Amino acid sequence: MKIALCNEVLQPLAFDQQCHVAAALGYDGLEVAPFTLAPDPMALSDADAAVYRRMAKDQGLEICGLHWLLVAPAGLSIVADDAALRERTVAVMERLVDLCAVLGGQYLVHGSPKQRSVPPGVSREAAWSRARDCFARTAKRAEAAGVTYCVEPLAPRETDFINTVAEAVRMVREVASPALRTMIDCSAAGAAEAEPVHELLARWMPTGLIAHVQVNDPNRRGPGQGELAFAPIMDTLLWMERDGHYRGWVAVEPFDYQPDGAGSAARAIGYLRGVIEGLGLSD
Predict the structure, then answer these.
(1) How far apart are CA 232 and CA 135, in angstroms?
(2) Tens of pLDDT along 190-229?
């Protein structure tokens, strides 16, 4: 099992230093938030992306994917009334797909809660149709680039649009592209789903629709820093991997860094490796 760290955890370190720290802690890769590479990720060239990819490789890391996609540039939305704004948003999504491929990434995680929350006066049916169109167009670019675009279910405390895996699966099935999938964020799932996270994984992973997993606690800290039990989660992931139902990454994504970014990252990887070793399934 390959474990990545979401790179914003190590800000404000420069990217080459983030790579050095993540590798020293024992991570296999970095999941990158594009806004950490440039104030406007649309200004990043393929040559810039190649430099970042080399920085990671020099430390023995992969850039496995991208997340927090629509934080910058400001003002984006996949559900707004303004068609021109949605066009601009799709252009950003498509460009990030291409950047992900140049960076060596395998997937993109579309969370971005503010940029998909339903605006006042917009019906849910209209929001759904607009989002579906944006995802469908981006999925075509992802197919061409050879990467997977993941619709991320998020808890109601973050957005009112696509809160459960079942809702995300509905979107994925309606778009019907092999490059569009969903994923499970343990913090969001622990807060929004009716069943335990490990049961959610066991139910959905055999469908082939789960392309990524992020590990964190519903209290928004790292794994092992809250009430969520990760032994059954890691046990399920390892068995899904062995049974051929999952070949993706597991990414550590805390939001509340305790005691600080580097300390949170160190505690998370140590905890997860310890859980895996304790399960006796590390070989």
Answers:
(1) 32
(2) 999 999 999 999 999 999 999 999 999 999 999 999 999 9
The answer to whether residue 21 is domain-embedded is: yes
Residue 85's contacts (CB-CB under 8 Å, 6 or more residues apart) are 75, 76, 77
Instruction: Give the domain CATH number at 18.
Output: 3.20.20.150
Q: CA torsion angle for 118, 124, 128, 131 (degrees, to 10)?
A: -20
- pLDDT of 280 higher than 90: no
Query: Is residue 150, in this structure, part of any structural domain at all?
Result: yes
pLDDT digits (tens, 9 = 90+) for 148-187: 999 999 999 999 999 999 999 999 999 999 999 999 999 9
Q: How many domains does the chain have?
A: 1
b/e sequence 252-282, b meaning 16+ C-beta within 10 Å: bbbeebeeebbebbbbbbebbeebbeeeebe
User: Are 136 and 94 in contact, with CB atoms under 8 Å apart?
Assistant: no
- Stated pTM of the model: 0.96
Query: Tens digits of per-residue pLDDT, 104-161?
Result: 999 999 999 999 999 999 999 999 999 999 999 999 999 999 999 999 999 999 999 9
In this structure, how many other beta carbons lie within 10 angstroms of the beta carbon of residue 163?
20
Q: Whole domain around residue 273: which residue ranges?
A: 3-277
Q: Which residues neighbour 243 within 8 Å (Cβ) at sequence distance 6 or greater? A: none
